[in-house]
Amino acid sequence: MKKIGFLSFGHWTPSPQSQTRTAADSLLQAIDLAVAAEEAGADGAYFRVHHFARQHASPFPLLAAIGARTSRIEIGTGVIDMRYENPLYMAEDAGAADLISGGRLQLGVSRGSPEQVVDGWRYFGHVPAEGESDADMARAHTERFLDVLKGEGFARPNPRPMFANPPGLLRVEPYSDGLRDRIWWGSSSNATARWAAGLGMNLQSSTLKNDESGEPLHVQQRKQIEAYREAWRAAGHTREPRVSVSRSVFPLTDGRDRAYFGREGGSRDQIGHIDENTRAIFGRSYAAEPDALVKQLAEDEAIAAADTLLLTVPNQLGVDYNVHVIESVLTHVAPALGWR
């Protein structure tokens, strides 16, 4: 059995070919898609976070709105760039959204991806300490965020407060019990997967991964997941961790599918460079008739190793079409693979 959700980047563009032409379109359609996905039987609604781009950026108003409109589906991110975040303010926002949803938040966080602007986090008031890189800063923000989510008091109360305080040191409010165990790290390398395991975070294996062995992406991800789980056991955590991978999966069941994705059948992994020093591998798309798709996905070692699959959706094709894609996977693919 697998949890199956969708992952949306929330693109919008003022093009007549797009069904999502404004930021308002992107946000409102995301809510509608999450509601429809829950009705279709999907397990998760996840959203990418990009700053300075025509995509989803500020996740918590969106997650809270979805939490208020749904009752079962997990809601989360994949991922929030922690270089941009104030950990305490983020803990307040996350606690509120989690309480609104009844404890369904699944927050993916990470160091972030290549940006639209140079050092965009500086505009948000965050500067690495002397001798620290932006990646170091992201991990430091993450560790502080995780500490705050424990719910332990740390702030000295005012002896003459406006309102009466509970005894002892104060914590960030609102506090949502259990959220600490529902934080995921979006990892593009084996080393950061091990680091995340040590801190007790779940793992989102990034579709854009450092090419560490020259092997196909799904093999590298499977080995990354194994390294993560080994580190998790070594750290002595008592609960079972969650692991997700994301894929573009399109069962070709009607004319729309074939028109949009019929040429994707020969897709292969792609190689590129995140920066001048980092060679990366990016995953293929899966597009085929359902029977052929089942055979292809059965050979994906990372999907087999993960407990959660996130379907990357082409949100600019509109809510109705994306619901059709999700339903097609749930109906024509998942049962044949034993995921349902």
From TrEMBL:
Listed GO CC annotations: cytosol
SUPFAM superfamilies linked to this entry: Bacterial luciferase-like
Record-linked InterPro entries: Bact_Lucif_Oxidored (IPR050766), Luciferase-like_dom (IPR011251), Luciferase-like_sf (IPR036661)
Source organism superkingdom: Bacteria
GO molecular function: oxidoreductase activity, acting on paired donors, with incorporation or reduction of molecular oxygen
Residues covered by the Luciferase-like domain: 9-250
PANTHER family the UniProt entry points to: BLL6902 PROTEIN, LUCIFERASE-LIKE MONOOXYGENASE
Name listed for the protein in its UniProt record: LLM class flavin-dependent oxidoreductase
Source organism (scientific name): Streptomyces roseirectus
